[in-house]
Amino acid sequence: MLIYAILLMMAAGLILGFILGVAADRLVVTQDPLIDLITELLPGYNCGACGFPGCANFAKGLVEGEANKISLCRPSKPEQRVALKEAFDKNPNIKGDIVRVEI
Ligand code: SF4
Q1: pLDDT band at 102 (very low <50, low <70, confident <90, very high)
Q2: Is 55 a domain residue?
Q3: Is residue 99 part of a domain?
Q4: How many domains in the chain?
Q5: Which end of the chain has fewer CB within 10 Å, C or N?
Q6: Domain span at residue 1?
Q7: Which residues line ligand 1 (CB under 6 A)?
Q8: How confident is the model at residue 36 (pLDDT cuts 50, 70, 90)?
């Protein structure tokens, strides 16, 4: 009887492992790498002065077109804004498009 219980648990483990493996492969969400690049170039204060909850969300907003002015990040220095503009001009988004933003 014990051997049946062990075999049943092993079979259940294999089936559930297979289902989780397939789900992990199909349900993966790929974030635009440009968002990470822009986030790294922002000041990182997460102050919310830009109107977004944190720098990563502001970067996401810029990349996805919810915002188009880098200067919304008030704590950023002029040289940071220029670096951000250059990053946008040189690096396409995940679709291969150049995102147009203003300083
Ligand atoms: S204003 Fe600038 S530093 Fe503050 S959260 Fe927005 S992007 Fe980050």
Answers
A1: very high
A2: yes
A3: no
A4: 2
A5: N
A6: 1-29
A7: 42-43, 45-50, 52, 54-55, 58, 73-76
A8: very high
- Helix residue spans in 27-77 (DSSP H): 33-41, 55-63
Q: Which ligand 1 atom is the nearest neighbour of the CA of 54?
A: 5
- Taking the model in full, what pTM does it have? 0.78
| Together in a domain, 38 and 80 | yes
Mean of the per-residue pLDDT values for the chain? 96
Q: Are 83 and 41 in contact (CB under 8 A)?
A: yes
- Does 103 reside within a domain? no
Residue 39 shares a structural domain with residue 4: no
State which ligand 1 atom lies nearest to the alpha carbon of 72.
1
Pocket probe mutation, ligand 1, options 35, 40, 42, max atoms within 8 Å of Cβ: 42
Residue whose Cα lies nearest atom 2 of ligand 1: it is 73
